[in-house]
Amino acid sequence: MPVKILIPTPLRRFVNGEKSVEVEASTVEGALLALGQRSADLRKQIFDDSGKLRNFVNVFLGDRNARELAATLAEVPVRAGDVIVLVPAIAGGVADVKLSRSEILRYSRHLIIPEVTIEGQKKLKAAKILCVGAGGLGSPLTLYLAAAGVGRIGVVDFDTVDLTNIQRQILYSTADVGRPKVEAARERLEALNPDIEIVTHSVHLASWNVLDLFREYDVIADGTDNFPTRYLINDACVLLGKPNVYASIFRFEGQVSVFDAQHGPCYRCLFPEPPPPGLVPSCAEGGVLGVLPGILGTLQALEVLKVILGVGDPLYGRFVTFDALDFKFRELNFAKKTDCAICGANPTITAPIDYEAFCQVRGAESESDVGQAQLISVEDFQQRRAAGEAFHLLDVREPHERKIASIPDSIPAPFDELPARLHEFDSADQLVVYCHKNGRSLDAWRLLRKAGFGRAYVLSGGVDAWAERIDRNLPRY
Ligand SMILES: [Zn+2]
């Protein structure tokens, strides 16, 4: 009976550029054999010499993985009008890639692994991987991908290297402080492996540029640290049909997964909505143990290599958490949501959206939000207080942060405790709140205003601005 086989882009050149081919068959295997008869070259792409379907080619019958429907594809029947989808693990012109003598020596420990061999190494060389974020996760990720011989590594980052980065971002040296991250990263990665290409993108990833950027790559690795970018990456990957290798870190905990709507659920299937603003602090606000991004970024590199090589079981539909203090890995299984807003049956998102609005970005991340708060500069505050004006200065940071640096005559009032301690303050008084920069203080200001503290202000720039402009003896962190 007639069935349709959808041909992925890299294989279309074997069928005169056709997007789909109709064949007569009664089983999935029969359909693939019939496809192979159309072109000997195509047959070599999807079957090995012994006639076995290559394991980096996935076969879907409708939306079901055909390999999961029966022990062999010869046992999976097809009906007239069925659609078979071929999904190679990676799109790339592997066949044309050659390894030089020095590359063969460089990668010899790969070549002797049966799961890699020279064919796998060629796949790595042909692969194009985009790492979004060249920070704690992006450091081990790009270093290992470069060392492993991934042919083209794109790095997206807009930041410059800061001294507070060096504690965990091992791509950089102390001498790199002040340099653009992508520049320092390119130099380091090229020194590590001159046989590969490093492409730098010094841009803010946004809804208007994400699709054009991602289109050039086979796999996207999400090493970012904020929700708007995570949702942006997820949505762009789903729209373009690319795998999204994900990791995230916070203090002593990490998460890793592989989202690929063609193989399973996406990030939105697991987290349809971002957490409310302020609930999850960023690394800059909450801190992170230096080695933790090393562990998670390395696991991310592992999953990228598996996806490229088409070996093992990538973390599709599996979400792994790591608790460094307990030394516990936990694996959680999750399924595709049929009503997922982007990868579900009736998606409501069909193009990248405005993620800052979706995630209700607040605090230091949104300038317009800062504009709404009543701000007082560190200079103004110091002068007015010195002139005898009465202020209660509330430090909404954690006690251990106060030990690093604090402003004289401030009252410790950690943000989490504030709601229960409002009765300690008089709403008729002038209150000034500060934190490290301006994340928690804005949330605290909002809380105070709601509770009727009409004379509450935010110390603009927090203790960091104080240390920079008022008391230079105070350490900055
Ligand atoms: Zn989804």
Brief summary of the model shown:
By secondary structure, the chain is of the alpha/beta class.
Write the layout of secondary structure elements.
Elements: E1 2-6, E2 20-24, H1 28-38, H2 40-46, E3 57-61, E4 64-65, E5 83-88, H3 101-106, H4 108-111, H5 117-126, E6 128-132, H6 138-148, E7 152-156, H7 181-192, E8 197-201, H8 210-215, E9 219-222, H9 227-240, E10 244-250, E11 253-259, H10 267-270, H11 283-286, H12 292-309, E12 318-323, E13 328-333, H13 355-358, H14 367-372, E14 375-376, H15 378-386, E15 392-395, H16 399-404, E16 410-412, H17 418-421, E17 431-434, H18 440-450, E18 456-459, H19 462-469
Parallel strand pairs: 1-5, 6-7, 6-9, 7-8, 9-10, 14-18, 15-16, 15-17, 17-18
Antiparallel strand pairs: 1-2, 3-4, 3-5, 10-11, 11-12, 12-13
Zinc ion binds at residues 265-266, 268-269, 337, 340, 342-343.
List keywords for this structure.
477 residues; alpha/beta; Ubiquitin-like (UB roll); Rossmann fold; Oxidized Rhodanese, domain 1; 3 domains; eight-stranded mixed beta sheet; five-stranded mixed beta sheet; 32% helix; elongated; binds zinc ion
CATH classification, class level of the largest domain? Alpha Beta
Determine the oligomeric state from the structure.
single chain
Question: Which cofactors or ions or other ligands sit in this model?
Answer: zinc ion
Looking at CATH, the homologous superfamily of the largest domain is NAD(P)-binding Rossmann-like Domain
Strand order of the largest sheet: 8-7-6-9-10-11-12-13
The share of residues in extended strands comes to 15-25%
Low-confidence stretches: 362-369
